[in-house]
Design a protein that fits this description.
CATH class: Alpha Beta
Helix content: 40-55%
Number of domains: 1
CATH architecture: Alpha-Beta Barrel
Distance between the termini: 38 Å
CATH topology: TIM Barrel
Strand content: 5-15%
Structural class: alpha/beta
Length: 383
């Protein structure tokens, strides 16, 4: 299958699986434990049906939106994902460039391979920055200051990672960072010569935002050890208050599923709540993002913007989330599949696919303006 024949995100996933060693592909494709939540993210979206209207003028369709003061051509924000450089050289800047060209959002991960400064100078100037609140608060402050200097308009604070969820596929595959070749993997790696060549000739894989964190002579192994030691189980809402005191821009909290937490987020002055279960990679058995969305929207009650992250594989999934109250959707794996399939061009193809599907869904739904969607677009039998 060539890039030109990739007509769905599922096609891009197949290309990614073909291009990557099994352990690397399953690192981006897998979830926690039995992957019930990972699968529920997609299954619950599939169960939602539409209530289309007919004989409405849909000749002038619109999917452009404003999210947290930013104008986007579509309600898509490519969400924070670490280790993009393991899929394609300079994966973070490639994704940043593609999203900038398409006029959609992009959020850089703390654990990205490209640094804040690299993405700002080679990718785009208006990306969001995602932050983990680490034990080393001085490092957190430094990251915030660097994001401010780079001109990031939004700080996205991920709050659902007090410890790393159990990724059993990775354990079975012996996946490590950096990847280590085991005897049983020799044939698998040998059949991915394109990937091996790109990794051998591309930039050194590192966590560029944290290179000094493991010491002046940090290598990737020591950085991984440092990151593992930085998970902080003591983080509470007081850290959100502290971040607000040092961050001048808008703030979103990612990882909210419970309406009570959504209300607390509003009380602590955040500008947006992102309904997310970390792509099913943390607590297996947590609710799907789409099933949690209506309760969070009701709890927020218009006092903050609400976005959804999890399970988006079709443009119609985005339309469903918007109809249930989201103002936009974060895209994770769909973008990674595109990146692994064909670098920046693959990311562009993923965006093209999703935007086309959104447009087609709006036309057939009889709803020309995505910002005017409400629950009447959804079949009541779904609830």
């Amino acid at each position: 299958m060539t890039r030109a024949r990739a007509v769905t995100v599922a096609d891009l996933r197949s290309l990614a699986q073909r291009n990557l060693p099994k352990s690397v592909f399953e690192f981006i494709d897998g979830g926690a434990n039995d992957e019930r939540t990972l699968n529920a993210n997609m299954r619950d979206l599939e169960r939602i049906g539409f209530a289309p209207r007919v004989l409405t003028d849909v000749s002038n369709r619109r999917q452009s939106v404003q999210i947290l003061g930013q104008e986007y051509s579509s309600p898509l924000i490519f969400g924070p994902t670490g280790l993009s450089g393991l899929l394609w050289p300079d994966g973070d800047t490639a994704t940043a460039r593609a999203t900038a060209t398409a006029g959609i959002g992009y959020c850089l991960s703390t654990n990205s391979n490209g640094s804040i400064e690299q993405v700002a100078s080679h990718g785009r100037p208006d990306f969001w920055f995602q932050l983990y609140i680490q034990r080393d608060r001085a490092m957190v402050r430094t990251l915030v200051e660097r994001a401010v200097s780079a001109g990031c308009p939004v700080l996205c604070v991920t709050v659902d990672l007090p410890i790393q969820g159990p990724r059993e596929r990775d354990e079975r595959n012996g996946f490590t960072v950096p990847p280590r070749l085991h005897l049983g993997d020799v044939f698998d790696y040998a059949t991915r010569m394109g990937w091996l060549w790109r990794m051998a000739t591309g930039p050194r894989i590192t966590f560029a935002n944290l290179e000094r964190a493991g010491g002046d002579e940090s290598n990737l192994k020591t950085l991984v050890e440092h990151i593992s030691a930085q998970f902080d189980q003591t983080v509470t809402w007081k850290e959100i208050d502290w971040l607000k005191s040092i961050w001048p821009g808008r703030m979103a909290i990612k990882g909210i599923l419970n309406p009570q937490d959504a209300r607390l987020a509003v009380e602590h002055g955040v500008d947006a709540v992102i309904v997310s279960n970390h792509g099913g990679r943390q607590l297996d058995g947590a609710p799907s993002a789409i099933s949690a969305l209506p309760g969070v929207v009701e709890a927020v009650d218009g006092r903050a913007e609400v976005l959804m992250d999890g399970g988006i594989r079709r443009g119609s999934d985005v339309v469903k989330a918007m109809a249930l109250g989201a103002c936009g959707c974060l895209i994770g794996r769909a973008g990674l599949y595109g990146l692994a399939a064909n670098g920046e061009g693959g990311v562009m193809r993923a965006i093209e696919i999703l935007k086309k599907e959104i447009d087609t869904t709006l036309a057939l739904l009889g709803q020309p303006d995505i910002t005017k969607l409400d629950r009447s677009a959804i079949s009541e039998k779904c609830f």
